[in-house]
Amino acid sequence: MARKHSKHGSYEDLHQEEEAPEAVVLCWLCGRPTGKTIVWHHPVPKSRGGRDVVPMHPICQQTLISNFTNSELQRHGMDVEEGLLGNPAVRKFVDWVANKDPDFTATIAKKKR
Fold first, then answer.
1. Which of 11, 29, 41, 112 could form a disulfide with 60 if both were Cys (CB 3.0 to 4.6 A apart)?
2. b or e along 74-109 (b: 16 or more beta carbons within 10 Å of the residue's beta carbon)?
3. Contacts (Cβ under 8 Å, ≥6 apart) of 72
4. What radius of gyration, in Å, describes the C-alpha atoms of the chain?
5. Read out DSSP for 9-67?
6. What is the bridge-based pairing of β-strands 54-56 and 39-41?
7. Reported pTM
8. Per-residue b/e over 40-52, b at no fewer than 16 CB within 10 Å?
9. pLDDT above 70 covers what percent of the chain?
10. How far apart are the C-alpha atoms of 30 and 33, rounded to whole Å?
11. What is the per-residue pLDDT for 21?
12. Which residues pair with 54 in a beta bridge?
């Protein structure tokens, strides 16, 4: 025989509870909070044996891809401060994008070959 009322309260009461605020995810390269779009980037490219992923803005990932080859990314690995931000073009980009909206997008210059 089915119960008329649940012992633990009604189903509607479960959805009225306050939802926990979402954790803020920071970009691995620039350190700003990520927006609606998060790219999960392999600091060491998969083709070079990388397994770890880090959250990034799409514009930050495009900057890395346009300034480093897979071999260079493999050499730098997870080292943001010394390796990646040591590159003047990447440092200039991070300083420029620091005050932009998390969902800011722009065209990134292509690789110079």
1. 29
2. bebeeebeebbbebeebeebbeebeeeebeeeeebe
3. none
4. 21
5. --HHHHHHSPPPPPPPPBPTTT-PBP-S--EEE-SS-GGGT----EEE-HHHHHHHHHH
6. antiparallel
7. 0.74
8. ebbbbbeeeebee
9. 76
10. 9
11. 63
12. 41
Half-sphere exposure of 75 (CA within 13 A, CB side): 8
Q: In whole angstroms, give the CA distance from residue 54 to residue 38.
A: 10
- Cα separation, 109 vs 66, in Å, equals 7
Report residue 67: phi and psi, to 5°: -110, -15
CA dist 101 and 58 (Å) reads: 13
The Cα 110–Cα 113 span in angstroms is: 9
